Amino acid sequence: MQWQDCPPSPLAWFELRQPLLTLLLTPGLLLPLVGAFALILAWWWQLPRLALPAVALLAPLTLSVIYSPLATALLSGWLMAQVPPSAPADGAQPVAVLVGRGSAIAAATTEAAAGRLRHGQAVAAYGSGDERATAERLLALGVAPSLMAGDSCARTTWENATHTAGWLRQHHPGAPVLLITDPWQLPRATAAFRHQDLQVIPLAAAPVLGPTERNSLALRETAATVLYRLQGGFESTR
Q: What's the pTM value of the predicted model, to 2 decimals?
């Protein structure tokens, strides 16, 4: 098994992103801040004094809808609608690619990758930005060590794509990518990999998660996907 370990690289914007995501995904922090901000705006706009408590209450109450099961379902459906169609097949067997998303999601993606490899629907597997435990799980599922490679270097989806593209050019030039990740990350990951001039076959692997985890992924990936669109990350992916 080929595996590349890398020391963590400093990413200033990455360090800023984490607290912002933590704030978004922690209603106990975000909602009181929204209430306080709404109260300041109401005072600034010189609303009647009796209206101030109502504004401070209604603003966080309205925003709390984003943490509901309905919001999870709507955001999840919107994200899946953003997944570009599969690249046209050119006869070459794809390489199954998994990206680091934690143990719960890895349980689903490794199962899907191992199944494709067992049935001859992929020639190799590459894991990017995850611990060796993911590769070891593939080995436990019957994947031959000679078919498995990966890295622990990537810290972002964009780096997943660049590290994978570099490895593919050396070991499987021209091979399509069977990109296996959770349904929430799939549209953004597909866009990042296609920007590396790779043929991408997106495949969603649904992990077993609780309602809170599903909501967190839906919120996180919706914000990230919108940011990708604003940055032009979805250009030339359709």
A: 0.85
